[in-house]
Amino acid sequence: MTTGLHIATPTDTTIVLTRSFKAPRRLVWEAMTSPDKMKRWMLPPPGLTLTVCEVEPRVGGTLNLAWKSADADPVMTLHGEWTEFAPHERMVHTETMKLASGETVISLVETNEFTDTGGATQMRITQTYKSKEDRDGALASGIDEECYVRLDAVVAQ
Amino acid sequence: MVSVDRSLRLDLVFHALAHPARRAIVRQLSLGERNLSELASPLEMTFPAATKHVRVLEGAKLVRRRIVGREHLCRLRPEPLKEAMLWTGSFREHWEARFAALDSVLDDMHVEEQSRSKRKTP
């Protein structure tokens, strides 16, 4: 089975990730929306630990995540809201990541789409950033790596 | 700032590669040095059109051109391509790691489901 990750940038402000999973759609959907599963696959940036993972999987429901480091708890937070929620098919949520200082690291809208592909599930994630600069920044360093560099700077102050 | 330079260089590289004719030229040059007419003819392109595309590739430092007599010899410069690949590397690595973790979460969920359904059958 090929599960290769495909990354594309169809417009100046978007990144599209496509990946197949050897599981039915409902399982992939559950893994993407239940906190106990999310905690396992949402790998944190180096040196950080995910401490809060609260999600209300429904339209208007919120996502709240927080990470701690050896020096600060929380050191970074993610707040978002679901704007579309069609189980096993498509969901859209906003997310804004902030440092403990309140400074916004990045803000984006993410769409997840699920398709059956003969025994497997294809998930397509479309991330839409506020600007080309933000998008390029995310691609250039990896969101988490960028956060980590900035956290270092904050800790050093 | 280094990162701004890098960002500008990447802009040039991706702009240069955002045209099928220029990608075809890069592909040809990956096989070795070619002169301008060798590059133009398989693309059914006029000499000036090929020159224009080669100039864009030169601007992105993807191609080096040297003039020998009446020939313009073009050669691929691999460094900017390598940089462009590295540029997507960490983002890709991050998501590949997450999706590999998701694979194992899904495996566990599958096993759990199967053992649950076995328990139900008397």
Termini separation of chain A comes to: 49 Å
CATH domain class name of chain A: Alpha Beta
Poorly predicted residue ranges of chain B: none
CA radius of gyration of chain A is: 16 Å
Tally of separate domains of chain A = 1
Gyration radius from CA atoms of chain B, angstroms: 24 Å
The H-and-E topology of chain B, N to C, reads as: HHEHHEEH
Give the CATH superfamily of the largest domain in chain B.
Answer: Winged helix-like DNA-binding domain superfamily/Winged helix DNA-binding domain
What's the average pLDDT of chain B?
A: 85
Distance, first to last CA of chain B = 69 Å
Number of strands of chain A: 8
Strand order of the largest sheet of chain B: 1-3-2
- String of helices and strands of chain A: EEHHEEEEEEHH
Question: Would you write up a description of this structure?
Answer:
The complex is a heterodimer of chains A (157) and B (122). In chain A, helix 1 crosses helix 2 (35-41). Chain A has 157 residues and is of the alpha+beta class. Chain A has helices at residues 25-33, 35-41, 132-141, 143-156, and strands spanning 6-8, 14-21, 49-55, 62-68, 76-86, 90-99, 104-116, 121-129. Residues 142-157 of chain A have low confidence and may be disordered. Chain A has four helices and eight strands. Chain A has a single domain (6-156), classed as 2-Layer Sandwich (Alpha-D-Glucose-1,6-Bisphosphate, Chain A, domain 4). The N and C termini of chain A lie far apart (49 Å). An eight-stranded antiparallel β-sheet of chain A has the order 1-2-8-7-6-5-4-3. By secondary structure, chain B is mainly alpha-helical. Chain B folds into two domains: 2-77, Winged helix-like DNA-binding domain superfamily/Winged helix DNA-binding domain (Arc Repressor Mutant, subunit A); 78-122. Chain B is 70% helix and 11% strand. Chain B has a three-stranded antiparallel β-sheet with strand order 1-3-2.
